Amino acid sequence: MDDEGRYRLTLTMGGRRTMRGWWATETAARKQIPVWVRDWGVEGAVITLTDTATGTVIHRWPDED
């Protein structure tokens, strides 16, 4: 598998996907999480980091309690 863009960040607001971005490495994608939280982290926003090779959500903001 070509890993370019394997790690996807998704911003959902009000239950609707509003923005996505892809990175080749998990490290690069994780560096974007605080940027996205700063820029888009409002009430009702959910940011997820997904490994598209496995379909696993590896990070979610805000954390689920």
Description:
The protein has 65 residues and is an alpha+beta fold. The protein has a domain of 40 residues. Helices cover 23% and strands 43% of the residues. The protein has one helix and four strands. A four-stranded antiparallel sheet has the order 2-1-3-4, with helices on one face. The radius of gyration is 11 Å and the shape is globular. The model has no long low-confidence stretch (mean pLDDT 93).
Beta-strand share of residues = 35-45%
What is the SS-derived class?
Answer: alpha+beta
- How many strand units? 4
Rg from alpha-carbon coordinates: 11 Å
Major sheet: 4 strands, antiparallel
Number of helical stretches of at least 4 residues: 1
Strand order of the largest sheet: 2-1-3-4
Shape: globular
Notable traits:
alpha+beta; four-stranded antiparallel sheet; globular; 1 helix; 65 residues
What's the SSE blueprint?
Elements: E1 7-13, E2 16-23, H1 26-40, E3 45-51, E4 56-61
Antiparallel strand pairs: 1-2, 1-3, 3-4
Compose a concise summary of this entry.
By secondary structure, this protein is of the alpha+beta class. It is built from one helix and four strands, in the order ββαββ.
